[in-house]
Amino acid sequence: REERDEFYRLCAAAEDSITLSYPQTDETRDNVPAFYLQEIQRAMPGVTLHDYPRVPFAPPIEECISQADLRLCNAMGSPREDPLQVHFLTKAVRDEMAWRPEQPFTPQDLRDVLQCEFKHFASKRLAIRPSREMARWHRLRRLPRNTRLMQQPTPEAAKHALETALEAELDTLYGEAPAWELSMMRSGGRRLIAEWVKREFMARELWPKEADTLKAELPFGAPGIRNTMPGDVPLEGTIAASSRMGPYAVTHLYESQAPQKGSNFGGPLAELDTLYYGLHLLARHGQGAGTAVEVESMSGERTLLLMPRLPEAPMASRQQAGLHVVDLATAGEGALAQKAFFDEVKRRLKRAVSALRQSGVQPMPGGHCTFCDFGELCRRSQGFSEETSPFGEDERDFEAD
Predict the structure, then answer these.
(1) pLDDT band for position 56 (cuts 50, 70, 90)
(2) How far apart are CA 324 and CA 171, in angstroms?
């Protein structure tokens, strides 16, 4: 409301003319003009609309005044050079960066390298940590796990524990975040907490667990949780919690996003999620028994992944409350369906392990480029590509001119 009032005062202060402008794109997305810009055009026919192109990056060469503009103009008009390949210059460096034969993998490592080899290399092997504002918000994802939400006895106790943890998290940010952002994070965090608590206790009623089986913060290799995957691939790391739900061995996870539906190979989950959640299912898989992964997210959903969906223990969804049940055994029936799913997991696991052990560093552009912090280093991302123009026709028009 204060921003709207201030905007009204600024507009009313103009004596002759007023110019309103907005960027067509920013770092992460294309922008949509606010509705009031169209309202102004409707109410005032004298409005003039200017659409300034994103290129050229410099004035025409005859209008260049600064040497920087002149150099840029000459560079844009020169013959195109192919981008340099991303690879290690010496075998010694490659061997130093290689994954050690005895070193175990985490499910996150395997998922990340399957998404983009360069992104994983920069973040994990080189340990580059860009300072990004959105990273502060992602830290809130840890609140339910840090407070062991699944073990809180009542909604009131759960809410109190989460809000205390939220304030402690904000205290650590006072030196690096402005007051307005801390206020937004507090407001957003409380909204997340209300949703987490609501879904947690609704899920307990809808998908009841055996109380005496609930255990928190378990490492791979603990009783009932394998730490060796097919092909003798060693795993390390911890899971938020484990429990039993009738015939199902359940793994509890907390993620930023809910599991994504499949589109590439027609399976129930997207490629990366097939590997990531498939590894957690394999870690608890037992002969003739069911396994499940219950995923709480920051996107308003809690998903129960079943392998397979057993008729003796029907699990219902509650879509309006954000509680979803997904049957992963969709390719056939019984053991054949489980085999089809786990075969996909094994294929993706083999590819990921091979990329890590061979020190793969190739950039793999995709939708993740929109939130990747390393695009300016790899030079192949959708925003910083040296192979294809992010501006499409604009660049060709500029070159033709």
Answers:
(1) low
(2) 35
Looking at every residue in the chain, the average pLDDT score rounds to 85
pTM, to two decimals: 0.76
DSSP 298: S
Q: At 249, which helix (H) or strand (E)?
A: strand 248-254
- Please name the residue that has the structure tokens 């993706």: 348
Q: Do residues 302 and 294 make contact, with C-beta atoms less than 8 angstroms apart?
A: yes
In eight-state DSSP terms, residue 262 is: P
* The token pair that represents 322 in the structure block: 């954000």
- Report the Cα–Cα distance between both ends of the chain, in Å, rounded: 47
Residue 201 φ/ψ region, left for φ over 0, alpha for ψ in the -120 to 50 degree band, beta for the rest? alpha
DSSP character for 212? Answer: G
Q: Are 344 and 265 in contact (CB under 8 A)?
A: yes
| 8 Å CB contact between 293 and 268 | no
Q: Which residue in 229, 260, 226 sits closest to 242, CA to CA?
A: 226
